[in-house]
Amino acid sequence: MRSVIDIVDLSVEEIDELCKTSLDIIANPAKYAESCKGKKLATLFYEPSTRTRLSFTAAMMELGGDVLGFAGASNSSASKGESFADTAKTVSCYADIIAMRTTQEGAALVASRAGSIPVINAGDGRHCHPTQTLADLLTIYREKGSFDNLTVGFCGDLKYGRTVHSLIAALSRYKNVKIVLISPKELMLPDYVKEDILEPNHMEYMETASLEEAMPMLDILYMTRVQRERFDDPEEYERLKNNYILTLEKLETAKKDMCILHPLPRVNEISVKVDDDPRACYFKQVLNGKYIRMALILKLLEEAKKNPKRVDAFAGKGYEFNKHVCNNPKCVTANEQELDQVFKTIDAEGHQRCVWCDIGEPQD
Ligand code: CP
Q1: What is the pLDDT of residue 230?
Q2: Is 52 considered catalytic here?
Q3: What are the average pLDDT values for consecutive 10-residue runs of the chain, which has 364 residues?
Q4: pLDDT score recorded for residue 287
Q5: What region, left, alpha or beta, does residue 72 occupy, with left being phi > 0 and alpha being psi -120 to 50 degrees?
Q6: Distance 160 CA to ligand 1 centre (A)
Q7: 6 to each of 77, 109, 231, how far by Cα in Å?
Q8: What pLDDT shows up at residue 237?
Q9: Which pLDDT does position 133 carry in this prediction?
Q10: In this structure, are residues 298 and 291 in contact, taking their beta carbons and an 8 Å threshold?
Q11: According to the model, what pLDDT value does residue 231 have?
Q12: For every residue of the chain, which 3-state class applies, written as one string?
């Protein structure tokens, strides 16, 4: 049995297989209409969501399964102080698979190690959002036919945008992908994403504050919302929120077949007038999200049936336990009771990073 916490939990071959299954679902929906009959998906959403929760729900319904769960931590026993680990153990008694979204980074990994059913990370703080990445990848696959030889621009909030981090990680495994990072200096891609993904994979990348400069070179433009909910300082959010607004005028220098993506929700960063431009693919992305979540649910349930024993992702990795504390205040270790502090060494100089959140560093 396996969970999907980070997009790199899935190999390139598995992503290809998920894309192919999605295309088969699109072509032959009736074939899949009873594939999950008698199975239950639990949606545990501690953070707001429209697309991810409803697309997981629609996906399970279209597979003939049932859905239970909660939307909002205040509607669950988390509001009484229940841990993610205890919640996962409890939900494992009722459901066959979990999709969960949290503010705390690393919470889905905690749930996957505590429960006895597969867990899909539906977004944990600013850390990962692998099923959004699958929706992005299926859209790129359908629009461009391949993941190789693309120049991909990421624009807006690259600091807090977990979908950006996950998609860069996914693209790092394909040939000749160039990354253009378009953001104000306050919202630049965090160093840990550069150090962990761009640099070790020798990905070509450039950073600029100018969308106009980047536009003509892009095959894909991935717009993002400035993530108000992750700012400690509301004034900084107000100052940065209108930095990039994509309009039809700005698209005049773009390639005719450029593909515009956005994980949504949109606030104002893409003019609604752009929606009718043939390059606008963000609502196709929403629909693709449902199909590839159907494919993922099918795959994980099939694997769990064949091998119900949980694979221990920590085994044999040489991690260091309980010598330091994670310095990321949003890390799940800051709240979860009696959780081991676990660190991995990330480079030859011996620098370490927290295994739960991938963001925090050790402090004494
Ligand atoms: N893209 C995305 O995660 O949307 P929701 O927050 O509406 O789920």
Answers
A1: 62
A2: yes
A3: 95 97 98 98 96 98 98 92 96 98 97 97 93 98 96 93 90 97 91 90 95 97 82 72 90 98 94 98 98 98 94 90 96 94 93 94 94
A4: 98
A5: left
A6: 14
A7: 26, 9, 23
A8: 67
A9: 97
A10: no
A11: 62
A12: CCCECCHHHCCHHHHHHHHHHHHHHHHCHHHHCCCCCCCEEEEEECCCCCHHHHHHHHHHHHCCCEEEEEECHHHCHHHHCCCHHHHHHHHCCCCCEEEEEECCECHHHHHHHHCCCCEEEEEECCCCCHHHHHHHHHHHHHHHCCCCCCEEEEECCCCCCHHHHHHHHHHCCCCCCEEEEECCHHHCCCHHHHHHHHCCCCCEEEEECCHHHHHHHCCEEEECCCCHHHCCCHHHHHHHCCCCCECCCHHHHCCCCCEEECCCCCCCCECHHHHHCCCECHHHHHHHHHHHHHHHHHHHHHHHHHCCCCCCCCCCCCCEECCCEECCCCEHHHCCCCCCCEEEECCCCCCEEECCCCCCCEEC
Q: Which fold has domain 7-129+287-306?
A: Rossmann fold (3.40.50)
Domain boundaries, the chain: 7-129+287-306, 131-285, 320-363
- Backbone φ and ψ for 282, nearest 5 degrees, come out as -70, -25
- How many Å apart are CA 7 and CA 345, to the nearest integer? 20
Site to probe by mutation for ligand 1, drawn from 43, 50, 267, 287 as the one with most ligand atoms within 8 Å of Cβ, is: 50
Does ligand 1 have an atom closer than 6 angstroms to the CB of 176?
no
Distances (CA, A) of 186 to 13, 147, 225, 226: 36, 30, 14, 11
Kindly give the number of the ligand 1 atom that is closest to the alpha carbon of 129: 3
The Cβ-side half-sphere exposure at 259, using a 13 Å CA radius, reads 23
Q: Is 131-285 assigned to CATH 3.40.50.1370?
A: yes
Q: Could you confirm whether 51 is annotated as catalytic?
A: yes
7-129+287-306 and 131-285: identical CATH topology: yes
Question: What pLDDT is stored for residue 199 in this prediction?
Answer: 93
User: Looking at residue 186, what is its pLDDT?
Assistant: 85
Which pLDDT score is estimated for 66?
98
Please state the length of the chain: 364
Count of CB atoms situated within 10 Å of the CB of 161? 25
pLDDT at res. 306: 96
